[in-house]
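Quick one, T. Sequence first:
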Amino acid sequence: KGKSYLIEAASGRGKSSFCAYIFALRNDFQGKIEWLDETDNPILLDEKGIDRLRCEGIGMMFQEHRLFPELTALENVLLKNSLTNFATEEEICRMLLQLGLENKLNVPCGKLSFGQQQRVAFVRLLCQPADFLLLDEPVSHLDEVNAKNMARILTEEAMRQGAGVVVTSIGKHLELDYTKKMML
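Structure tokens:
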């Protein structure tokens, strides 16, 4: 917790699979992934443990975004936030505006560009408490200004929560103060 890691590799090298293992979406691996609770006891990754992990322990920004195309940018983020009650609507709107989406709040996500969807998915990620934030190729379709704004917002939020950050990249990545960079 409290540190940032970059995993950089060419396409097809397992970055998204790694994130899916950490987020408990896949279990087709050898070895052991263990999450510990606040008293350093292992969390049993049964259905209840996985739900707890995903609601309180780890946030994930998926490479394919997983937005509801018929819902607007704001509705997609508010839907996530309705499950966590973590951010205020004012905080959500502020982040969306900082990422240049002021004219897109009420546009269905299915009509947004890939980069605009990427920014909506990022703000949705920040609508939950987390010990770790996983971002799978979060800036692959962003211009430099929005990538810098995203890095600033992420740094502030990670510091506020004391969260660790794991970013995957194929070359273009968030400019963070990484504790460790792994190039595969």
